[in-house]
Amino acid sequence: MLLTVVFSFRNEEDVLEKTISEVSDVLEKNNIDYELIFVNDNSTDRSLQILKTWSGRDSRIRVINMSRRFGVSPCVMAGFRFSQGDAVIYMDTDLQDPPELIPKMVELYRNGADVVHTVRTKRIGETAVKIWITKLAYKIINRLSDIQLIENAGDYKLLSRRVVNEVVKLNEYQPYTRGLIPWIGFRQEAISYERRARYAGKTKFSLVKSTGPFNEFIKGLTAFSEFPLYASLFVGFIVAIGAFIYLGVIVITKIYGLNLPGWSAIMGIILLLGGITLITNGFIGIYIGRIFNNVKGRPSYIISDTIGFEEEKDLPTKDSRQA
Predict the structure, then answer these.
(1) How confident is the model at residue 262 (pLDDT cuts 50, 70, 90)?
(2) How does DSSP classify residue 146?
(3) Which of 286, 63, 252 is nearest to 174 (CA)?
(4) What is the dihedral of CA 14, 47, 97, 55, to 10 degrees?
(5) CA separation for the pair 207, 213 (Å, rounded)
(6) How many domains are contained in the chain?
(7) Nearest-angstrom CA–CA distance, 205 and 169
(8) Tell me: the pLDDT tens digits for 69-99?
(9) How far apart are CA 150 and CA 131, in angstroms?
(10) Mapped to the 3 state alphabet, what secondary structure does 160-220 carry?
(11) 144 within a domain of the structure (yes/no)
(12) 15 — phi, psi (to 5°)?
């Protein structure tokens, strides 16, 4: 069998050589035929130069260069489309996820598994706040959506060729890959491990940025659940009923000539209604935004060029400057 290992990365000059060495050593010691595909998300450091040097030495090391920065999920999808392996593993380049797990993943694949998840029992080098937020996000998505994510299973998985083909066929804009894999189905297994600290460099993820856990949580929830829309409708009904009751109280007090001072109460109600309106409009806006991005029909990524592939897939006529 041929195994493809896909890496999505940006500015990882400090760790790339170590990653290539460790992954290659593990695969060669276990007699696994392989190719390594590095999807370069428009790095601005020496990462591309390092990969060019390694690719010149070893034809199994291949590079896909993005035309600009597109993010992790689109880069992973590009790696899937270019992969040739009977099975595909995708992982980060920072060596937090140990390559030593790969033989176990391949063994489960050979025994019939179409998907092999890796579940983190310990996460060294990550803050308690990030771990807590991540666990909470998994629980909420599992409770409110039509998929079941394996808690603490991140972006280090093995997929069979037929699962990869199904993922690529979906052709979603900004796909939530962690949710798509369980949604597709087939036989899925899991193995546990302790996640290490980064080998070198700094993390590119932030709690509040587009690549952080909060954004991933919103993306996962709105991709696989309509609960926020139904919840907004339910809250709207409750508030409307409360408003009618309050209007009835006002009419009764007027009839009996009672005075209802309540500036603070009125302001509180206005602020409450305003907050509810903004939250519901926000959720509706997210769904509309996802629809808008999908109906535009723009690709999730654009490839600048490739290195090490025999054929230029899905690329326009080659620029004469690259000849």
Answers:
(1) low
(2) S
(3) 286
(4) -120
(5) 6
(6) 1
(7) 28
(8) 888 888 888 899 899 899 999 988 888 888 8
(9) 15
(10) EHHHHHHHHHHCCCCCCHHHHHHHHCCCEEEEEEEECCCCCCCCCCCCCCCCCHHHHHHHH
(11) yes
(12) -125, -15
On whether residue 67 sits in a domain, the answer given is yes
Strands of 71-141 (E only): list them.
Answer: 87-91, 115-123
Confidence of residue 64 (pLDDT cuts 50, 70, 90): very high
Q: Which two tokens stand for residue 130?
A: 């990030």
Best CA proximity match to 123, nearest among 41, 68, 205, 226: 205
Phi, psi of 70 (to 5 degrees): -120, -20
Give the predicted TM-score (pTM) of the model: 0.71
Q: Domain for residue 61, yes or no?
A: yes
Counting beta carbons within 10 angstroms of the beta carbon of residue 106, is it exposed (0 to 12), middle (13 to 18) or buried (19 or more)? buried
Q: Which domain holds residue 104?
A: 2-203+305-311
Report the C-alpha gap between 140 and 142 in whole angstroms.
Answer: 5
Amino acid at residue number 314: D
Distance separating alpha carbons of residues 182 and 151, to the nearest angstrom: 12
Q: Looking at the domain assignment, is residue 172 inside a domain?
A: yes
Question: Residue 71's domain is classified under what CATH number?
Answer: 3.90.550.10
Q: Tell me the torsion sign for CA atoms 293, 296, 297, 302.
A: negative
Q: Please state, rounded to an integer, the average pLDDT across all residues of the chain.
A: 78
Rounded-to-integer distance, Cα 97 and Cα 11, Å: 18
